[in-house]
């Protein structure tokens, strides 16, 4: 791709990551949440792939690491849900506390959002990696 | 504790995908997979001991949470799932050799999805878990090394997703009109309106497409015949039962209108006979068994259409056992003799497999001490006047097609290799289970009618053989190219549209 596209995507990508992080952390207070955050996180990587090519992006974001993040975050979600059983029932919110409307008032929900965001982001990125293996160009 | 039945297989599935990232498949994949597939047994026993047999996830109220539970309706579905999956899991330990971590992860995802769909008392949750099971099923069909397996997987994917979208649309209408997704709450607050009637028709037709019943069966034979052997056993045994559980859930929640029930009965009989005719014409043993599934699913739908809930439950249970047993034992033969053609396969020299295939064939034909006869009796009690005779004819037809299968398998042929002992043992265990459950349920022994139906079936078989019916060759309707696949999918999607419209119109006359 041209220099213009490359520079713009390089400029935009970090902001998208920040936005994804915001959506993950504030998912319980404002519109957003894990899934949306994950998609935006993945798009920041996919934009880089389309402008710079699969081979160059793969050097920074390794397939193994992406795959690791994906499985590890899924395990975190289920472990958290199972941990709820000790306190009463499956998926029980055992970390309640904090003032209403504040960042820490969500209990385990922000943790879920972060894990799901990472899982979805890594999943989408992985999907692109695997598809692009077949249509390697650039 | 009921929720852990789903959570732990899921957890193990993700652990498996984690270890396959680090290429540790050889060391850890098998123990993790076996642990994940057998742990639900433990939690089933624990949750059957302690009293509330239902649970609301997250400790919310029933209105706000997702209800899961065990009751008379789903216990046998669950039991069938656990038995069939355990057998298929042990079978696949030896079957899959490369990339085991990922394959086992997919299998465990399917396990979790099936258990989740069978324990849910909530339409949306049921839908989600059914989807988890079928999405892993597409992938598992696709990994088969057989020719055109990927095409079959693609076709399965397209039609299964079409069904899912329509089903979620129907759930949407129900939610819009009642305000609940929980089956019990819907039942309490139900006012039948025209919209809900339409939603029920849509839900039924989409579940029929997902279960592969006659006019909408087209994805089933390819997908079930081309999947790897243990996967075929799972698909035919239990994955097609999850839409049946959905139908049962709908049937118990709403009062379905009489026109629709009559239509379902006609479709069910059409499916039974269509399956039998195509079974008689097949030469590939796995395709024969796949068409048998089309026919047997007809029996289950028939039982639903005559409001015989017990019939649905017991027939689904029985069909899970004998069909997965048949696929496993046919798979053992295919694996050692490297062919799927009935004319090249034989069970001579493999007495254990011979006994299991014969026993399972008798079970599927409804011969008395086996579990099939108990289930068939329940359905038979619900039928009246001329439907009973149709049912007997169907039974004789099923027996004829299985006599044909056994006739070809019993001919001595040159055999190079013996089957693996694990495969033989598993097939034999499945046969014993069909027998044990038949005796446990207390199937009546009906010597005269059994002998009579086998006799008529034998005569029919001889007549068909004399007229060379078994030599008829079926040509594929569509060519095996990209264009052919596209044409095929378009054609069947159009057919689905027409059936859908007919259903909608006829249900309200």
Give a written overview of the molecule.
The complex is a heterodimer of chains A (138) and B (509). Chain A has helices at 3-25, 34-52, 54-60, 63-87, 109-134. Chain A is mainly α and 138 residues long. Chain A has one domain (3-134). In chain A, helix 2 crosses helix 3 (54-60), helix 2 packs parallel to helix 5 (109-134) and helix 4 runs antiparallel to helix 5 (109-134). Chain B has a domain at 307-474. Chain B has a two-stranded antiparallel sheet. Chain B has helices at residues 4-21, 25-49, 72-95, 100-119, 123-142, 149-178, 183-188, 194-211, 220-226, 229-239, 241-253, 258-281, 285-305, 309-337, 351-364, 371-382, 385-410, 421-441, 447-466, 482-506; strands at residues 54-56, 67-69. Chain B starts with a helix and ends with a helix. The model of chain B has no long low-confidence stretch (mean pLDDT 88). The longest helix of chain B is centred in the N-terminal third of the chain and has 30 residues, at 149-178. The chains are: A mainly alpha (138), B mainly alpha (509). The A-B interface holds A 64, 67-68, 70-72, 74-75, 78-79, 81-82, 84-85, 88-93 and B 1, 3-4, 7, 10-11, 14-15, 17-18, 21-22, 55-59.
Provide the descriptors you would attach to this structure in a database record.
heterodimer, A: 138 residues, mainly alpha, 5 helices, 72% helix, 0% strand, elongated, B: 509 residues, 2 strands, 1% strand
